[in-house]
Amino acid sequence: MTKNANPGSGITSDAARPASGVPPFMVDRRRPSNATEVSLAERLAFERLLGDLSALFANLPPERVIAEIEAALARLVDFLGFDRSSFGEFRDEDSPIEVLCSVARNGIETTPLGVGLPLPWYFGALRSGQLLVLPDLPADLPPEAEIEAEFSRQSGLRSNLSIPLRVGGRVMGVIAFSAFHRTRAWPEDLIVRLKIVGEVFAQALARSRRETELAAALAEITRLKERLEAENSYLRQSGCARPAQMLASRSPRFNQVLDEIAQAAPTNATVLLLGETGTGKEVLADTLHALSQRRERPLIKVNCAALPASLIETELFGREKGAYTGALARQPGRFELADGGSLFLDEVGELPLELQAKLLRVLQDGVFERVGGTRTIRVDVRLIAATNRNLARAVQAGGFREDLFYRLNVFPVTLPPLRERREDIPWLAWEFIKHFSDSMGKPIEHVAEDSMQALLDYHWPGNVRELRNLIERAMILARGPTLHVALECAPATTTRPTATDTLADNERAHILQILEQTHWRIRGAGGAAERLGLKPTTLESRMKRLGLSRSG
Ligand SMILES: Nc1ncnc2c1ncn2[C@@H]1O[C@H](COP(=O)(O)OP(=O)(O)OP(=O)(O)O)[C@@H](O)[C@H]1O
């Protein structure tokens, strides 16, 4: 005997097969007198087989249902002497029948699994709940069943019994029995019993479908719960729950940037924010996300320069429990947290090469695996990346993958440095004054004229961040309604680039000067990072890039 599903599960015929070798209930039309010659022993054996099957299917785990239906079909074929038996499912009102398993005697082909053959009259009748008893094919077919008649002639199918199976009022499946090259009769009491068996199968299948759906729904709830917990803890740690600033500007160049952001926001395009440190790339990422259709989901941020490669992989992609020593619990990564929302990859130019390939895969296919995991996770994330490095040059130098660069560079937006949007200096200064006035309780009415002029003249290597820091320091020192901003502690304007210096030379010299003034103290109040208006991690990665170290 051959079968079509689960070739490994052996066909059993342990139900007592009639010793006479005459299959009970099976009647050759040419010998109709045999119909009544069914011994009591055979009937009992068959009833026992039905009882066994009902008991087996009552508590079957979902994943075993189809294999057990197939094994049961094999027992029925064997016991009752059919040539072939198949079981199919109508998944819903509109989908075609799907053959789930089929077994056949040696020499007879099983019904191919998957979508059923195009037999419109046959499947139409079954779907409408009609029992098909066709002892003599093709003679028993109605005239409109032309395709079925042709099929019968070509395949040698001579007799068929097909029973529609209802669960909860809907026809959800079909069990079919066939004989080839000879006709068969299908006595009423056999049909009644086979219908009961078919319904046992259909009930088990429907239950397994419900259980699988329930398990999937529960897994989804667990996933969402984990994500929500992780999101909450991320937002608590990062203090990112603040609403995005809606930016304004007096500068035509910066207004053009804002226009570009407004245009890109409603699309799903990856946006690459370029510009010197402190120009407002992160603030702009907030604005972009807030203007996008993803605003109801979080904007998750990762600074690629802040963590070593090993940690950043876990941070981005999460890890499975036991991924490495100390990984006690499963942890979703930032990509999962950002599912449905946006991910801001700050300092993307610092991403280690080995992780660039993994990032490229998420950008291309939306999939990745957690560290220590094999399950592929699919996410829908809009990426916003930022860098103050020249990525094209990094590609040439071999430090950045070219394919990733092109993926990121879909919609590049370059933020002008503050010295090229001086129109914004007074206005921004007042924004910060108002902010610190409120928090410090120090009302300020004027900015000293020479201070404002100095602010306008200054070169602003640390851009808006540096302006903010200077105003904060001035506010702390303020004693009256007039604010005096001391630019002496800011880097001197002599660091302004000259025609002969490149920007990189100038940057290096400027950072070196501040490092020396601060005795190479990077962090804390008055440290080099604060003086330069940089995040300490940014300064460290900048120093690495420029080859600046105390010894060197
Ligand atoms: N247009 C703006 N209005 C108000 N504040 C701003 C504006 N632009 C930048 N800032 C402030 O300047 C500081 C630096 O901004 P941000 O972190 O966005 O810069 P960045 O370009 O991402 O810097 P880095 O490259 O160092 O990460 C922040 O405190 C931010 O609030």
From TrEMBL:
<dbReference type="GO" id="GO:0006355">
    <property type="term" value="P:regulation of DNA-templated transcription"/>
</dbReference>
<feature type="compositionally biased region" description="Polar residues">
    <location>
        <begin position="1"/>
        <end position="12"/>
    </location>
</feature>
<protein>
    <submittedName>
        <fullName>Transcriptional regulator, NifA subfamily, Fis Family</fullName>
    </submittedName>
</protein>
<dbReference type="InterPro" id="IPR027417">
    <property type="entry name" value="P-loop_NTPase"/>
</dbReference>
<dbReference type="Pfam" id="PF01590">
    <property type="entry name" value="GAF"/>
</dbReference>
<keyword id="KW-0175">Coiled coil</keyword>
<dbReference type="Pfam" id="PF25601">
    <property type="entry name" value="AAA_lid_14"/>
</dbReference>
<dbReference type="Pfam" id="PF02954">
    <property type="entry name" value="HTH_8"/>
</dbReference>
<dbReference type="InterPro" id="IPR003593">
    <property type="entry name" value="AAA+_ATPase"/>
</dbReference>
<feature type="coiled-coil region">
    <location>
        <begin position="207"/>
        <end position="238"/>
    </location>
</feature>
<dbReference type="InterPro" id="IPR058031">
    <property type="entry name" value="AAA_lid_NorR"/>
</dbReference>
<dbReference type="InterPro" id="IPR025943">
    <property type="entry name" value="Sigma_54_int_dom_ATP-bd_2"/>
</dbReference>
<dbReference type="InterPro" id="IPR003018">
    <property type="entry name" value="GAF"/>
</dbReference>
<dbReference type="InterPro" id="IPR025944">
    <property type="entry name" value="Sigma_54_int_dom_CS"/>
</dbReference>
<dbReference type="InterPro" id="IPR009057">
    <property type="entry name" value="Homeodomain-like_sf"/>
</dbReference>
<dbReference type="GO" id="GO:0043565">
    <property type="term" value="F:sequence-specific DNA binding"/>
</dbReference>
<keyword id="KW-0547">Nucleotide-binding</keyword>
<dbReference type="InterPro" id="IPR025662">
    <property type="entry name" value="Sigma_54_int_dom_ATP-bd_1"/>
</dbReference>
<dbReference type="InterPro" id="IPR002078">
    <property type="entry name" value="Sigma_54_int"/>
</dbReference>
<keyword id="KW-0804">Transcription</keyword>
<feature type="domain" description="Sigma-54 factor interaction">
    <location>
        <begin position="247"/>
        <end position="476"/>
    </location>
</feature>
<dbReference type="Pfam" id="PF00158">
    <property type="entry name" value="Sigma54_activat"/>
</dbReference>
<dbReference type="GO" id="GO:0005524">
    <property type="term" value="F:ATP binding"/>
</dbReference>
<keyword id="KW-0010">Activator</keyword>
<keyword id="KW-0805">Transcription regulation</keyword>
<dbReference type="InterPro" id="IPR029016">
    <property type="entry name" value="GAF-like_dom_sf"/>
</dbReference>
<dbReference type="InterPro" id="IPR002197">
    <property type="entry name" value="HTH_Fis"/>
</dbReference>
<feature type="region of interest" description="Disordered">
    <location>
        <begin position="1"/>
        <end position="28"/>
    </location>
</feature>
<keyword id="KW-0238">DNA-binding</keyword>
<keyword id="KW-0067">ATP-binding</keyword>
